[in-house]
Every structure is written in structure tokens, then in C-alpha cells.
Amino acid sequence: MSSDDSQTRNSIGRRRFLKSIFGLGTLLDDAVEAKTHDANSSDAIAHNKKSGSAAGRRAKETPPYPPVFIWADLKNGNVGFPTGLELGRGMPGSTMKLIAAAALHEEALISPNQIYECSGHITLHNETFNCLHAHGRVNLTHAIAKSCNVFFVQAAEKLHTTMFLDYARKFGMDQPVAGRKSGRFPAGANGPSYRYVLGLAEDMQPSALQILRMSAIVGTMGDVPFLHSAEDPDDGNRFRLQLSEGTWHRLQQGMQLACTEGTAQKLDPENKLHIAAKTGTAPNGSKFTSWITGYFPIEDPKHAFVLNSSAGNSQEAAVPQAHKFLLSTTWP
Question: Which domains does the chain have, with CATH numbers?
Fold first, then answer.
């Protein structure tokens, strides 16, 4: 077998895995599959056939749309919309693991050095959850970097949905940004916490601006200037969040490791911008919507960004698309 044939089979196999763990029904034709990029993502989540496939069939599929890219200046609060005023769509996927990690660490629900063994899959409450790879022994920091579903599903057992939503509010997931209204946010706890931790709860769909602000909060350790577009007043209140230094450290370290050895390692492989980032993938009918958000440079964060794509999972869509936007721009 030639190396090209082997790569094609691997790509098809990974795509088949991603579709099966989301419970999205029939596969795309192999001829179409062979054209896809290497879907090397741990953001994909496994639902069992009882709940996942039915949800996938019922989900209303959003037609593809151009990528949404938004950036913010973390020194003066200016927000740029180079792709227009579209604010992104869909469930946030694994980006919500940042909020879960903050709650787990800040509330001492797990030890900072708590280890879970990731064999690549786990079954809890009659549902099976998978990672694309077996991550082995994983702590909180590496679980963020590798977006380890097996870790976060187990950790979510210690995190009540109400507390997760409390922390989501702390991170502004129910508040407008830059004059744009908030995305969908639940009125109360509705369902098990892992659906929110994994970013797969349909009643929680933050806008791209809210996800951008979340990474800005992490990058600035909870002191974000008032975010505004150029035509709007700049005299609003700063967004402040107080968490322990240890919590901030683990969130930042996890996002940094994501760019060197985790799900965002192809974002800036030459480390030109010194980025910290978090990826996310969620089902959209029979396809995927994906996210990447982050800040840079890690030494003194000056910019935050978010990209939302309907072209596939984070590895084949959000990461390479964000790479093009970030590396083709001259940043002050």
C-alpha cells in the first residue's frame, strides 16, 4: 500500500470515528471522505446510540457559512470584526472545559494533581464517551491541553450543573459583549453537568464575542478592559473576575500546552506569536461546527481572538482557518 493510500485510509478512519462518537448516523461517501483533512481531534464527544443518534437526527442542520473571526485589543478594549458582524453559531463544544476547570480547581472539587487514566473511552450513566486517542495518565492541566473527554466526564461527577452555571455567569456567559446581546443561556440547571462541561447542551450557546471574552479573562487573570467596537463609546466598566492564582495558572498553562502538544499545536507551529488557545467541536446535524479561542503573546497578553467555523471539526477547520487569519496579520 502506498503512503498516500495509507494517509487516505487514516483520514477516512478518523472521520468515521468522529461521526460515530457523535452518533450522527450514516457516513459520508468514501469519495468525499478521502478529500477531508486529518481529523486528529479529541474535542469529539461520544453519545451512546440511545441518546446521541436520535439527537443527531433531530438536530436542525445549519447551512455552511463563512468562518467568523473576531479579535480584541486587551490594552484598550477595541474589538475588530474582519469577517463582518456575524457572531458565530452552534454549541460551544470543549471550549467550556475552561469554565469547568476553573470551577473544579477553585472550589477544590478535585486535587490539582488529580490523575485520571484515559484509555480512550469510558462508560458512565449508560453513555459511552470517547477520545480519539488514549491519553494515558492525565491531570487537569493536560486535560485542558488535550481536551480529554474521559478526564472531564469523570471530573464532572463532582461538579453539579448549578455550580457550573454559576461559574459560567462569572465568566460572562449570560452577559452582552461590545453592544451585542448574549447568546442562549439556560434559565436553570437542566440535565447532567457533563453536557454543559462538554459544551453539548443546546440551551447554552454563547456568542463568539462571549467565547472571546472568556479567553481574554484567562489571559488577563480576570481584568479585561471594556470591550467595544470602534464606533461605540469606550467608557464602560472593565470586566473583573477574582480567582486564585493557582486556578489562573492552570488555565493558562493548559491553553499554552494546547498550542505545543495538544489540540491547537498546528495553530502556530513555529511559535511566532506565542499563543495560548482552546479548541472546541460540536455536532451540527450530520456535520460539525468548531471553535478556537485564545490570547497572545503569553508573556504579556495584548490580543484575544475567536474563530467559529461550520466547515468541520476543530482540526480540519477552526485551527487551520485561525492560523491563516493570525499569521497573515501584522500585530502591534
Answer: 3-327 (3.40.710.10)
